[in-house]
Amino acid sequence: MEYLILTNNGSIGQWPGFAVVRVQGGLDAVYRVLSEHLQNGYELISTPIPANVPLIRSPVRSIILRKTTRKYDARGLIALEKAQERTDVLGIIDEERTRSDLELIDKNQLGRTVRQLTELTEAMFNFPAVSGITTGQEAL
């Protein structure tokens, strides 16, 4: 399986086992690139919207995708639409004084998601997830 991280988080470097696609710009740019991928053979693995309001309003986002044989990920496109609607309602707060904190939180959430993905894959198939995928702790 081919995994991909879409991110506009400048603090995220290479992540073992994942291709990293750096998106220039804000959350709208991340959503645009995500939509393109979801319509071109990738499926959504992590959610495009965080679980709490302060993080929903963050301009920083990292999302995990997986290459698939399907052309479109309908569920992923619905999740993206809901994330865009929630972002439109709540707005984005982009302040330089909080940017590094938001990048750190996003990076930690990404690490947790990778760890959960690895554990789930190992439990389902009773073997290591994918050669080269690590929990990313060394990247933190």
Write up what this structure looks like.
This protein is of the alpha+beta class and 140 residues long. It is built from four helices and four strands. It has one domain. The chain starts with a strand and ends in a 15-residue tail after the last helix. The model has no long low-confidence stretch (mean pLDDT 88).
Search tags:
single chain; 140 residues; alpha+beta; 4-stranded mixed sheet; 4 helices; 14% strand
Secondary-structure map with pairings?
Blueprint: E1 3-7, E2 18-22, H1 27-38, E3 42-44, H2 53-56, E4 62-67, H3 74-90, H4 96-125
Parallel strand pairs: 1-2
Antiparallel strand pairs: 1-4, 3-4
Helix pairs in contact: 1-3
Total helical elements: 4
How much β-strand is present in the residues?
5-15%
Whole-number tally of structural domains: 1
Class from helix and strand fractions: alpha+beta
Order of helices and strands: EEHEHEHH
Distance between the termini: 24 Å
Number of strands: 4
Major sheet description:
4 strands, mixed
Overall pLDDT score: 88
The strands making up the biggest β-sheet line up spatially as 2-1-4-3
Would you identify the regions where 5 or more consecutive residues have pLDDT less than 50?
none
Helical residues, percent: 40-55%
What gyration radius follows from the Cα positions, in whole Å? 15 Å
Choose one word for the global shape: globular
Kindly summarize this structure in a few lines:
By secondary structure, this protein is α+β, with helices and mostly antiparallel strands.
